[in-house]
Amino acid sequence: MFINIIARILAFFIIIISTKIAYAEAPTFIQQFQAWGSYYYNSKQGKICYIVSVPVEKAPASVDHGKNFFIVSQKPGNKVSYEPQLMAGYNLYSKSKVTVQIDSKKFIMFTRDKGAWLENAAEEPQLINAMKTGKKMNISAKSGRGTTTTYSYSLEGISAALKNIKNCK
Questions:
Q1: CA 49 – CA 26 distance, rounded (Å)
Q2: How far apart are CA 76 and CA 56, in angstroms?
Q3: Are the C-beta atoms of 42 and 164 separated by less than 8 Å?
Q4: By Cβ atoms counted within 10 A, which residue in 4, 63, 134, 141 is the most buried?
Q5: Residue 78 belongs to a domain with what CATH number?
Q6: What is the pLDDT of residues 10-27, one digit of tens each?
Q7: Mean pLDDT score across all residues of the chain
Q8: Distance (Å, rounded) from C-alpha 41 to C-alpha 151?
Q9: Is 6 among the domain residues?
């Protein structure tokens, strides 16, 4: 319930940051799948579908993390089937790397402002598969002030959420 409320509050914020369009329709909530909510909105480029979750754990507790979330978007008509990204509630350290770990699998993301994306886009399917088969996703990042931050995301419900947006058109 808490994650559902947070996800809805963050939905509009997600759209503004994760797209490069001047105008976007307000997002429409589709369904909640445990820790992951599914949404869509219409843009000038077409319908955009995505799933989003918020961290269940944050460290260090002594800092203001802002609003952080992990999003996986799908843009029908584009060659990218799923695009995973981290959206931080603060500016990330310039040219730093974000580490995503699920079980023994590690993925490296590059940063820009408050966002992080996989360095190697060819690894997107592997990250999505690891998310589907894992239970928890741990993320380590460095803030613009140099503070190392960590986040844990539950992966419960992600397979159902991805299936929900699979045929987004």
A1: 12
A2: 30
A3: no
A4: 141
A5: 2.60.40.1880
A6: 444 444 444 444 455 789
A7: 87
A8: 27
A9: no
